[in-house]
Design goal:
The relative contact order is 0.12. 30% of the residues lie in helices and 22% in strands. The longest helix is centred in the middle third of the chain and has 17 residues. The chain is globular, with a radius of gyration of 21 Å. The protein has two domains: 280 residues, Aldolase class I (TIM Barrel, Alpha-Beta Barrel), CATH 3.20.20.70; 88 residues, Immunoglobulin-like. By secondary structure, it is an alpha/beta fold. Helix 5 runs parallel beside helix 6 and helix 11 runs parallel beside helix 13. Homodimer. Belongs to the glycosyl hydrolase 27 family. One of its GO terms (cellular component) is membrane. InterPro entries: Aldolase_TIM (IPR013785), GH (IPR017853), Glyco_hydro_27 (IPR002241), Glyco_hydro_27/36_CS (IPR000111), Glyco_hydro_b (IPR013780), Melibiase/NAGA_C (IPR035373).
Length: 390
């Protein structure tokens, strides 16, 4: 297990693109080739990421989720890509993605079948790790469906971690371990961080405001047990960014981006980058917000107060700075003002004796210098967030 304690990866939260929320398990390429989970989709996404600033903004992984596989393993017992949808094979796709200065992620499952019913990795952990490494894969998302007992679940996650390390290839390891554990027992996050680079705690994100709210509520409710474990090498994963799709208003998209930065979340977009609005692109590529997410101190933020419809969150940053998010949960009426004392932030240290305040979202502007005893009054739209750097 010593090998698994730190595989040297995910020093900051990983960033990239993942097909699941937007493209699900679409396998009918004959009638809808543009939306089908296929080689073509990942090649086109890689092209766009390289050409349109996504890679340069930090989004480096192009990730395949469930449903890429053929229904059975090959004669040697190895996983294989569906030959119709991935005619060139995963190795060729990885080479293409690498040629664009990007990395390839892939998906498997700790159980005997994936969540969508394709072959899982149970009893094949070493073979599958070797297969992924031989293909040039850079990240593995390892799901927890059909795993049998909790003991088998834990054993499978540990064994795949060790198997990945044994390949000698740097492969980021994304786990769903605590999510599948939680209904029955409190996860041991110290142990999980020994084996995984990031891990899901809660249900899949949907393209809806109610989904974003439920993730934020769950995170705030459990912050005492999850915030302290996050840091370089291991991160809590609240799931994909759905900005640029259909379900979020502009203010709600701002809230997701701001709060995912506060939570030190892996930033994996699930959208169609071939068709995305300039506004969504501006938000997802916002350098100042990404810099907060990627801050090298590596501390996850947390909710410090809740007052009627307002939530105040903070995240300690390097250089004695803080990111502060003011979230308005009201869903009726117009913009509301929230006033708070700067002495409230960072246990009184964030603005002592004085500090500069920069607003990053929903638009960038300089608020100037304030003293420790000052109050800030922030106007926030319904379901929106104002993100500040102190």
């Amino acid at each position: 297990a010593a090998l698994a304690l730190d595989n040297g990866l995910a020093r900051t939260p990983p960033m990239g693109w993942l097909h699941w929320e937007r493209f699900l398990c679409a396998t009918d390429c004959a009638t809808d080739p543009r939306r089908c989970v296929s080689e073509q989709l990942f090649v086109e996404i890689a092209d766009v990421m390289a050409a349109e600033g996504w890679r340069d903004a930090g989004y480096e992984f192009v990730c395949i989720d469930d449903c890429w596989m053929a229904p059975t393993r090959d004669k040697q017992g190895r996983l294989q890509a569906d030959p119709k949808r991935f005619p060139s094979g995963i190795r060729k796709l990885a080479d293409y993605v690498h040629s664009k200065g990007l990395k390839l992620g892939i998906y498997s499952d700790v159980g005997n079948k994936t969540c969508a019913g394709f072959p899982g990795s149970y009893n094949h952990y070493d073979l599958d790790a070797q297969t992924f490494a031989s293909w040039g894969v850079d990240l593995l998302k390892f799901d927890g469906c059909n795993s049998g007992t909790l003991e088998l679940l834990a054993e499978g996650y540990k064994r795949m971690s060790l198997a990945l390390n044994k390949t000698g290839r740097s492969i980021v390891y994304s786990c769903e371990w605590p999510f599948y554990l939680r209904p029955a027992q409190q996860p041991n996050y110290t142990e999980i961080k020994q084996y995984c680079n990031h891990w899901r705690n809660f249900f899949d994100v949907y393209d809806s405001w109610s989904s974003i709210k439920s993730i934020l509520d769950w995170t705030a409710l459990h912050q005492d047990s999850i915030v302290k474990i996050a840091g370089p090498g291991g991160w809590n994963d609240p799931d994909m960014l759905v900005i640029g799709n259909f379900g979020l208003s502009w203010d709600q998209a701002v809230t997701q981006m701001a709060m995912w930065a506060i939570m030190a979340a892996p930033l994996f977009m699930s959208n169609d980058l071939r068709h995305i609005s300039p506004q969504a692109k501006w938000l997802l590529q916002n350098k100042e917000v990404i810099a907060i997410n990627q801050d090298l101190l590596g501390k996850q933020g947390y909710q410090i107060t809740k007052d009627k419809n307002f939530e105040l969150w903070e995240r300690p940053l390097s250089g004695q700075a803080y990111a502060v998010a003011v979230l308005n949960r009201q869903e009726i009426g117009g913009p509301q003002n929230f006033t708070f004392s700067l002495s409230f932030l960072g246990n009184g240290l964030a603005c002592n004796p004085a500090c500069s305040v920069q607003q990053l979202l929903p638009a960038s502007r300089d608020w100037g210098v304030y003293s420790w005893v000052s109050s800030l009054s922030v106007e926030v739209n319904p379901t929106g967030t104002v993100l500040l750097k102190i």
